[in-house]
């Protein structure tokens, strides 16, 4: 009897509980080589290629594209080639074999610190050398640098997993997209352009020839228009409504990837944090010339963190411990069609306005392209939600543990303000500060908010 090996879905990053199958790069019966792409999986962080742990024959694939696979659950069965060199069972591979354990993942070692630069994230270790991060899959041993996704040639098309996932989402046939990247690599822009102009629609094909028929011609089949909804029926009577059936639009859909993780994070935050919100308005009347609003907000948050360190902190509700941070790493909420990302703007306290703008641009581009390293999506010390760029004045932003506070910036407005001897119209920015009342007092939060408002009111 052949020796069948089962490959279990590894932890694709920071203890994520599951991942979604984007596409399989093989089918049952195919022969695959060690470390060749097995499938692409989408997590809350990114889309990554999972490599084959064996050289041999694919016996079974668990799940179809779109299915959610739990971390530690069976992903594929293999019949290893007895004549080929296989990886030793004990060899570090970046993925973990065997079913999911009931015990949680170990905490990061003391002394580790995540640092960011314009080139990406890096990890400093103050303790012993790390063996495996659990965030990189394939024959890669964890080191001190972030591994960047490489374009793989599958089906004659070169593209990174994030581009393949976008093409699948937009129903674009990658084989028909004209690549513009180096060495013929298909880029995000190529896929978006193809989706916009319809030049590479998935499943599109030349019109089928109409078979000849003796003595008659067959009319081409035309798509039938969907029935239009209206307040009255064809008989002129009011339409009676009924609860929608399971086949109707608007029915529940399974959350996946980023939105699935967002739902978990928000639920955990709601269950763990004791939130309290203070609101006020920043008076921008004294500003001279054109100002970068986001850069000014970040500068004001840094000033407030230095004035009242209690809100630039992490809080452990289980052990009732608080960690104050000397540096200010600000989580910037970025809204996308796939869900909410919160990349970390590292070392905001030592960046000038130009450095802040360059770092934000880099983070946004990496979020949009789904190439942002997992290390950049965690470890911030305080958060900023600039929701006012869309709409809204005040809010109750959600504090995500272990952070203690989040600042929300509302939509700018021109308000009538009472001044000595009369009234004036000033440009003002609504500010909302939500903080975890277990870790900070109301007085600390109020002093923090005052320091932030004072810095925003300065001319430049």
UniProtKB/TrEMBL annotation:
Check the record and name the PROSITE patterns matching this protein.
Answer: BIOTINYL_LIPOYL, LIPOYL, PSBD
Superkingdom of this protein's organism: Bacteria
Cofactor(s) annotated in UniProt: (R)-lipoate
Q: Which Pfam families match?
A: 2-oxoacid_dh (PF00198), Biotin_lipoyl (PF00364), E3_binding (PF02817)
Q: Name the Gene Ontology molecular function terms of this record.
A: acetyltransferase activity; lipoic acid binding
Region (Disordered) location: 81-133, 212-254
Domain Peripheral subunit-binding (PSBD), first and last residues per copy: 158-195
Top enzyme class, one word, equals transferase
- What EC number(s) has UniProt assigned to this enzyme? 2.3.1.-
Q: Which GO terms describe its cellular component?
A: cytoplasm
* Residue ranges of domain Lipoyl-binding in the record: 4-79
Q: Which InterPro entries does this one have?
A: 2-oxoA_DH_lipoyl-BS, 2-oxoacid_DH_actylTfrase, 2-oxoacid_DH_E2_comp, Biotin_lipoyl, CAT-like_dom_sf, E3-bd_dom_sf, PSBD, Single_hybrid_motif
Gene3D superfamilies per UniProt: 2.40.50.100, Chloramphenicol acetyltransferase-like domain, E3-binding domain
Q: Where is the signal peptide?
A: none
Q: Which family does it belong to?
A: Belongs to the 2-oxoacid dehydrogenase family.
Q: PANTHER family per the record?
A: DIHYDROLIPOAMIDE ACETYLTRANSFERASE COMPONENT OF PYRUVATE DEHYDROGENASE COMPLEX
Q: How does it assemble?
A: Forms a 24-polypeptide structural core with octahedral symmetry.
The protein here is known as Dihydrolipoamide acetyltransferase component of pyruvate dehydrogenase complex
Q: Which organism is it from?
A: Rhodanobacter thiooxydans
Q: What is the lineage of its organism?
A: Bacteria, Pseudomonadati, Pseudomonadota, Gammaproteobacteria, Lysobacterales
